[in-house]
Amino acid sequence: MQFTVNGQRREVDVDIRTSLLDLLREHLALTGSKKGCDHGQCGACTVLVNGRRINSCLSLAVMHQDDEIVTVEGLGDPERLHPMQAAFVAHDGYQCGYCTPGQICSAVGMLGEVAAGWGSHVSPDLAAPELSTEEIAERMSGNVCRCAAYPNIRAAIAEVAEDGGLEAAPEPRRQEALA
């Protein structure tokens, strides 16, 4: 199968039962996405597929032929952080860090949903959703932080949203081919 991961066209041959998460971690050595619960309940494995956030543990790799996949590694690197990564650092939006890659990918995808005008269960006006603290909490409810860094995570997301958010899916940072 073929797809694009973090801006790089990839071709792999894997068992049809392989999850997208296992493909990323075990076959492409992209270990940023974490295997937390392996049941779609924690969000640690969240990645962006065609600009939309998904739990990669619940998705078979073969379902993503020709898709554009962005992992936390594709958002930025230590020399050039993505705005959401920089905001998480500035607001201490992590403690143990295990959930952080999924939180960041989910937050990027969530801001894209807000920019597209998608409401949530707590949106007071579906025609013009705003990003209140309640909205952020509701929209990020699929991502669990066992350390309870939620106030800092919400502050990081609010900062990026106030700075203009992310109008479209992120442009992935190109990665060199793995040997």
From TrEMBL:
Top-rank taxon: Bacteria
Stretches assigned to coiled coil: none
One Gene Ontology molecular-function label: oxidoreductase activity, acting on the aldehyde or oxo group of donors
Name this protein carries in UniProt: 2Fe-2S ferredoxin-type domain-containing protein
2Fe-2S ferredoxin-type domain: residues covered: 1-75
Classification of source organism: Bacteria, Pseudomonadati, Pseudomonadota, Alphaproteobacteria, Sphingomonadales
Record has Metal-binding as a keyword: yes
Record organism: Sphingomonas metalli
Span of the signal peptide: none
Entry keywords, A to Z: 2Fe-2S, Iron, Iron-sulfur, Metal-binding, Oxidoreductase
Pfam families membership: Fer2 (PF00111), Fer2_2 (PF01799)
